[in-house]
DNA sequence: ACCTGAACACCGTTCAAGT
DNA sequence: ACCTGAACACCGTTCAAGT
């Protein structure tokens, strides 16, 4: 056998990686997507360099925490597309997305940033999700349920903006569902 | 004369204060409302402690930079109220506000934060402006031009959210006017 | 009365030295 | 092959010492 399997990572490296992710989930839940990476390393009981070795950028860490969610939402869009009327499918997907978008403080900002930053590790998984949602939008527009001058980026930006509002203050967070329905209602043709 | 005038600040203190504001305007224009205060002091050629003496918090400095703008917008609302039909007056005011809201990166976030934080120095001047705008909203609703389930805070949050979107990426910034019109259009009764 | 900058407690990021 | 933590370049904030 001249072509061998690539060696599996060393056991200690695997343990460290898992430990970082476990702690990162907690710390990001507490502090948001801008959480202190030093704090993550400290609480995981590993050296700061080890964290950077496994996750060279903050986005690489976030991507690992969030890609499942993005993949699930992309699959959800595909499922809704084939089982629901266009307007329903879009409304339901946005509602599902919006619910998760407030999982972490700063998440709306992190997601919107990936649109522009193609070097971000979050770019690909987030783009796939956006494209799946874009098809739902297109269908809803073809059915006359959404005005024609809205594109997928507009919709994504607006939904994240409502998520951002909810991040800013508790009293605004309480209005989140209402603000979202105002915005979505407003996208219907007059 | 037993009750004397309060003494005018020392000449050097006055000069320092003016110099801080001058430099802060530049640095905030460059770096946004989260600009480094250390950088402001450095570029103003004054000690860091002097900056903190004149402006104990970041918001106190921002308030001094921004209160003129808020006062002008409050006055603008009053003027529009007495000269234009309700729907026009509101649309024009929001357009004026939105234009200024992108003057500095981070400004939308700073403004929205003052809603909740009553200890912020920006709270009072921003509240007065919001109340003036709230009257325009009420008039527009009474005239049937805006749906009834929108309050002043909703409108303020949404307009700032669109400003925030524009902060996130150049490509989104180019869609700002379109996104704003989408949102405002959407607030009309269906 | 006011100014100054060192001091303290934090960051993110890199990298030489270790195992 | 991987881990570690010191080192560097930044923050915000406070305060003892100066003029």
Distance between the termini of chain A: 68 Å
How many β-strand runs of chain A? 0
Assembly of the depicted chains: homodimer
Proportion of β residues of chain A? under 5%
Report the biggest beta sheet of chain A as strand number plus sense, adding barrel if it closes: none
How many structural domains can be distinguished in the coordinates of chain A? 2
What shape does the CA trace of chain A take?
A: globular
Organism (chains A, B): Actinomadura luzonensis
InterPro entries (chains A, B): Homeodomain-like_sf (IPR009057), HTH-type_TetR-like_transc_reg (IPR050109), HTH_TetR (IPR001647), Tet_transcr_reg_TetR-rel_C_sf (IPR036271), TetR_SbtR-like_C (IPR049445)
Keywords (chains A, B): DNA-binding, Transcription, Transcription regulation
Protein name (chains A, B): TetR/AcrR family transcriptional regulator
Describe this entry's structure for a reader.
- The structure is a homodimer of 190-residue chains.
- The first copy, chain A, is an all-alpha fold.
- Chain A folds into 2 domains: 1-56, Arc Repressor Mutant, subunit A (Orthogonal Bundle); 57-187, Tetracycline Repressor, domain 2, CATH 1.10.357.10.
- Helices cover 74% and strands 0% of the residues of chain A.
- Chain A contains 10 helices and no strands.
- Chain A has helices spanning 11-31, 37-44, 48-54, 58-83, 86-101, 107-116, 122-142, 152-168, 170-173, 176-186.
- The longest helix of chain A has 26 residues, at 58-83.
- The radius of gyration of chain A is 19 Å and the shape is globular.
- The first copy, chain A, starts with 10 loop residues before the first helix and ends with a helix.
- Chain A binds chain B through residues 109, 112-113, 115-117, 147, 149-150, 153-154, 157-158, 160-162, 164-165, 168-172, 175, 178-179, 182-183, 185-188, 190, and chain B through 109, 112-113, 115-117, 147, 149-150, 153-154, 157-158, 160-162, 164-165, 168-172, 175, 178-179, 182-183, 185-188, 190.
- The first copy, chain A, binds a DNA duplex (19 and 19 nucleotides) through α1 and α3.
């Amino acid at each position: 056998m001249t072509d061998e399997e690539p060696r599996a990572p060393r056991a200690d490296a695997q343990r460290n990686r898992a430990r970082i992710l476990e702690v990162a989930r907690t710390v990001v839940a507490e502090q948001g997507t801008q959480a202190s990476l030093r704090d993550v390393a400290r609480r995981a009981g590993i050296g700061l360099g080890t964290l950077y070795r496994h996750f060279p950028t903050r986005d690489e860490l976030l991507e690992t925490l969030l890609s499942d969610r993005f993949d699930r939402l992309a699959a959800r869009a595909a499922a809704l597309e084939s089982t629901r009327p266009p307007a329903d499918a879009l409304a339901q997907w946005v509602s599902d997305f919006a619910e998760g978008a407030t999982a972490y403080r700063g998440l709306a900002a992190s997601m919107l940033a990936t649109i522009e930053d193609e070097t971000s590790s979050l770019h690909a998984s987030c783009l796939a999700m956006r494209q799946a949602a874009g098809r739902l939008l297109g269908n809803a527009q073809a059915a006359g349920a959404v005005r024609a001058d809205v594109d997928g980026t507009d919709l994504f930006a607006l939904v994240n903006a409502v998520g951002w509002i909810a991040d800013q203050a508790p009293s605004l967070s309480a209005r989140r569902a209402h603000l979202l329905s105002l915005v979505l209602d407003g996208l219907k043709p007059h």
